[in-house]
Amino acid sequence: MTYENAGNDAVLSQQTDRESNARTYPRHLPFAIREARGFTVVDMDGDEYYDCLAGAGTLALGHNHPHAVDAMERVLEADRPLHTLDISTPAKERFVDSLFESLPGEFASRAKVQFCSPAGTDAVEAALKLVRTATGNRSILGFGGAYHGMTSGALSLMGAAEVKEPVGGLPGHVHHLPYPYDYRPPFGGGEEGHRLASEYVENLLCDPDSGVGEPAGMILEPVQGEGGAVPAPNEWLREMRRITREHDVPLILDEIQTGLGRTGETYAFEHAGITPDAVTLSKAVGGGLPLAVVVYDESLDAWEPGAHAGTFRGNQLAMAAGEATIDYVLEHDLADRAAEAGRRLRGHLESTAERFDAVGDVRGRGLMLGVEFVNPDGEWRGPGPRPPDGDLASAVRAACFDRGLVVELGGRESATARFLPPLTVSDGQIDDVASIFDEAVAAAVDGEEARTGVTA
């Protein structure tokens, strides 16, 4: 087969024949991509799509941004090394310069960095090993609704039991705590609910009979991404920082999806004005190429030489692209742009929510937004007003795709449509996305009403 001249059906058929049953995106985004630039991708049949998935938030500057491409081309043209394990190079040192420049000064002044194998889940595994080595303790405090990756340690941090069952449950010495999800609040919504959620954590650490003991660390996402674009309240984050500091529990913030401007600050923890002990980074920090790091306070640096490694931790092209991307985000104030564009998109999404009872919640920060679909007439087994409707969300995703918009789902029952456009998205493109989404919701709701006879 001459793939460049093949159509979607031929390429997808080949993929189905040869790839594992674990493949996911092609099942509900049935196309193959021929080319991509900025906010758009073009499939093998020549159809164009707005890409609000953007590599699950990896492409902060969009596809093939000239600034990142030029940086990679300079490495290739100058016969620079492409792979150096953890041996240093000018490209690596420049990347670290840019990375530390992007961090708040208080954190950067005491920071160490560990390069990991290339995926975000590898950074999470390294962070778990780091705090266990530094403290001598074993257990980890994680949160319901979290997603930290698909390797065994990262999986153990997730609350979703069905994901872990096929691999034996992976207990992993993890205590799962309630995350302050305002639409389905574990202790009630608002400030009082956040206060009770904080008190719950503090009581566990103070109570010698709680079963928690002395944790090695706490890990949380400032905005839960795969969990449905659920932002943690700033006051709650400040309380988690106070509690972990007072109990000598290292605080790890998973900024793999939120980091580098996505939420309207360079790093999402800056919204709360806190300083973590460790931050895991991947996705955008590699400029679209595989790169993962843990940045942590020097007080945790108790590793012996060789205690953590990874063959591809010396990816020089990713470091060049990452340096270029970090510099571009900072020089062009793209965090502020994400905040501004996010407000514009959120306003449109909230207008859609006003029209349809089946839209239960619009939430998120910056250009990390989610729209949760619900069944207005159903009964939810847990807290919250109405049950999530994953079937309707799937119908909306399909209707978006048919109209030239790529979105992905997350959250409980996969009922939340998620928006992760590049930070370079224009106002006009935001308006187009919102218009397509509104049409898709209307079409999906009409289809559901026709199928069930129940108004959504």
From TrEMBL:
CDD domains: OAT_like. GO terms for molecular function: diaminobutyrate-2-oxoglutarate transaminase activity. Keywords: Aminotransferase, Pyridoxal phosphate, Transferase. The lineage of its organism: Archaea, Methanobacteriati, Methanobacteriota, Stenosarchaea group, Halobacteria. Its EC number is 2.6.1.76. The keyword DNA-binding does not apply. Residues 1-24 are annotated as: Disordered. This is Diaminobutyrate--2-oxoglutarate transaminase. Its cofactor is pyridoxal 5'-phosphate. Belongs to the class-III pyridoxal-phosphate-dependent aminotransferase family. InterPro entries: Aminotrans_3 (IPR005814), Aminotrans_3_PPA_site (IPR049704), Dat (IPR004637), PyrdxlP-dep_Trfase (IPR015424), PyrdxlP-dep_Trfase_major (IPR015421), PyrdxlP-dep_Trfase_small (IPR015422). It comes from Halogeometricum luteum. It comes from the Archaea.
